[in-house]
Every structure is written in structure tokens, then in C-alpha cells.
Amino acid sequence: EDQVTQSPEALRLQEGESSSLNCSYTVSGLRGLFWYRQDPGKGPEFLFTLYSAGEEKEKERLKATLTKKESFLHITAPKPEDSATYLCAVQAGGNNDMRFGAGTRLTVKP
Amino acid sequence: NAGVTQTPKFQVLKTGQSMTLQCAQDMNHEYMSWYRQDPGMGLRLIHYSVGAGITDQGEVPNGYNVSRSTTEDFPLRLLSAAPSQTSVYFCASRINPADTGELFFGEGSRLTVL
Question: What is the pLDDT of residues A5-22, one digit of tens each?
Fold first, then answer.
């Protein structure tokens, strides 16, 4: 069965303090790994899709990387507006649906 | 530019009552799905549809029914609500079933079953 584990569950940073969020996955035949951002009371918003080990994608202060077993979401010099829950999901094998991790709740203090 | 629209945003039910959560998308997406989100458990797939007239079960389908009579609409029916169905429900769509592109989510429907 496909499994996605995110760590840590919660992360508190000072503004400007860079860090990384981890997403470990166990799937058969990865087709895509996705990162989403979710603000309180809202639906998830798409950030990135990664397809193969070694791939990297960037958007503003966020950079996502992928290996054969895990993905990292690196946050460089975060700002308070980066506070949100970050979700990781995988699509694998013949499945059309995505399996989500439980998320990492990020708080950035000014 | 509506995207995925869910109604209602909030609902309180008594145990045993039935109701329908509505989901509509205006992007002509073939693939639509329903997730529930519970604290510490992430999003779990309830049911999905790969096109009008075609639906299938996800990870947690018990207690829920779906149908897809049009491309735009994908309602989720709770047949006899139970407290365990207290959750936040999200509808999501994608342009086609086999695509690995992004899922577009609605704003969510928060359901409380007393």
C-alpha cells in the first residue's frame, strides 16, 4: 500500500530562519509527487509536481527536491505570510488518485 | 473564474439525518473526487469519478454515495449521518483521470454530526 509520511508535524521558525520539511514515501511506480499549501479554512493550493529523482523546482522562497525515497521542501528566509500547512501527496502505479501525507504546520514568527 | 465550488460551507446534522454536499466545476474537467480531512490523518479519498456516468470507491467510501450525471457536478450524499462523519470535506478536480497535473480544490464543507 502506498504510504506518505511528513515530518515534522509542526515547525516554528523566526522570520529569516531557513529550514526544510520532509516527505517520505513508499510507493510502487511513482508517477508524480506533489506539494500543496493549505491556509486555515481553505482548500489546498498547488505548489509543485516532481516526477523523477534528482528533479528540483523553485517558487519564490520555496524549493522542492526529490530522491527515490523522499522529497524536501526547503524554505529560504521565510516570512510570516509563509505560515500555512504544507501537504505532500503521491500518485503511483495505475492509480488515478493521490495519497496525501498528514501535513506539516509551519508558523513563521516576525 | 469560479473553479471548484462547494456548498454548503458549514452544516450541522443530527445522527441519522441525510444530506447532500454539492460540488460543481466550470473547467470541463473529466476527473472529480471527494476527500475528507481529519486532524492528524491528512486527506483521505472517499469516492472519485473519471467522467460522467462513471464513479468508483476510494479509501473510505462507507456511508457515502456519489453519482455523476453531468461533467460539471459531483454531489456527495450522506445516507444516515454518524458522528464519525464529522469532518471537513473537499471536492477536487483534474483535467483528465490519468493526468499527473494538479488537483484543483474547492474551499471545503465543514460538517458536524451531533
Answer: 999 999 999 999 999 999
